[in-house]
TrEMBL record:
Belongs to the ABC transporter superfamily. It comes from the Bacteria. The lineage of its organism: Bacteria, Bacillati, Bacillota, Clostridia, Eubacteriales. InterPro entries: AAA+_ATPase, ABC_transporter-like_ATP-bd, ABC_transporter-like_CS, Metal_Ion_Import_ABC, P-loop_NTPase. Keywords: ATP-binding, Nucleotide-binding, Transport. It holds the Pfam family ABC_tran. GO terms for molecular function: ATP binding; ATP hydrolysis activity. Residues 5-236 form the ABC transporter domain. PROSITE patterns: ABC_TRANSPORTER_1 (PS00211), ABC_TRANSPORTER_2 (PS50893). CDD domains: ABC_Metallic_Cations. This is Metal ABC transporter ATP-binding protein. Signal peptide: none annotated. Gene3D superfamilies: P-loop containing nucleotide triphosphate hydrolases.
Amino acid sequence: MIMIFECKDVTLGYENKVVAKNLNFKIDQGDYLCVVGENGTGKSTLIKTLLGLIKPLNGEVIANVQGKNHKGVGYLPQQTQAQKDFPASVWEVVLSGVLNNDHRCPFYNKKDKAEAEKNMEKLNILDLKKRCYRELSGGQQQRVLLARALCATDSVLILDEPVTGLDPAASMEFYETIKDLNKKENVTIIMVSHDIKNALNYATHILHLEQENDFFGTVEEYKKSNVSNMFLGGVAND
Ligand SMILES: Nc1ncnc2c1ncn2[C@@H]1O[C@H](COP(=O)(O)OP(=O)(O)OP(=O)(O)O)[C@@H](O)[C@H]1O
């Protein structure tokens, strides 16, 4: 098993504010982890910490992230209204995914363009190439952002509440796409979600953040745990 992330006794938070304490968990290549929990329990703070955007207040975060062509993680942030209105073409949005620490030159080369095209094909959005991003539906926008994220990595995707605002059909389509990337291409998935039912359907592991009562384990272990019983009130066994 190739370890991708490991948190050892990690305390998450900001200056003078502890958000979560004593987190211990490990994510291996090919895992599909859903991070669940009530509002404000630190899910987004954990994501920022895994991405290295903020440092843990205590403990150790070990990251072992390597893509095929690029280093790093593909990241799909929570979309703000301003991002939804971004005035660029689909092609420009996807292509910008290749820009990372290793890419110091502001121009795109042939390899970059081939990578962007390949990921658009994979996500079935080649026909949207010339469209303006802000004129797309929510589901189409998420596919564009996913193609963009895949330009940054082919090994780890981090998604923060990716189906928020999508209708049920678009949500299911999105989940199926993520499932294919995980199962067929062994992409490690870390997804923050409030959609617990689908988290339990698709994930291999659950990290439930709750003050003083965090849980980490497989979906099967989670379904049997006290944390899930209290949180779900029976959904786990539906
Ligand atoms: N930049 C920041 N500085 C200080 N405190 C912050 C900052 N960002 C978030 N917080 C606080 O940290 C706590 C955890 O926030 P976080 O966004 O990680 O929770 P969450 O579980 O993702 O919530 P939600 O489900 O509502 O998205 C909250 O109390 C929040 O107010």
